[in-house]
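Quick one - first record:
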Amino acid sequence: MEYHHRISFIHDDTEYSFIKAMNERLTGHALVSACRMEVQIYMKEHNLKGKYILTGMAKV
């Protein structure tokens, strides 16, 4: 089963947020790693380059 998570991050002083379905079995470090991977995918799809700060993730 999957849960939807709102993932938030800051890039170049702008906060971005999106919703992504994540596997319910992911917890702790595995969940954070999966969220970071989704942020990298989002940034690539939206032509955002450089560093980011993961600011939040929550079930929605």
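second record:
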Amino acid sequence: MRARDLLAPFPILGLDAPVADAARLLARQALPGVIVLGDDGAPFTILPGTEVLRLAVPGYCQDDPALARVVDEAHADLFLRDLDGRTVREALPHRPRELPIADPGATVLEVAALMARTRSPLVAIVEDGRLLGAVTLQALLDRMLPA
């Protein structure tokens, strides 16, 4: 089985799109992440939902989980509002990491190894510099695990 056999169209966003749009896309379509295109229109990175949360959750709560417990429920329920006015570019990790990109002829094992190595729940499939879609972890597991 090849990447082209698991390929599905996948939503994209630009670097300067509102990160709140990314969060809505993740939630409404139950996506593990979104493909972010660079200024040149080529895949730049994968933005997993956890990075969107990292931007929204106050740093002091990430550093010391006990501090999250002292925030009252009414205020704790509003933490995602901190995404307003921020961009996808701001949600990206500070250190660039390997971009999970494969060609349509990659084997399922190659795609799985890339997911594991990059810790990405999806791999962008690119041919001749053009994004064809993505292979998600769920699609890979659904097809590869016996029923």
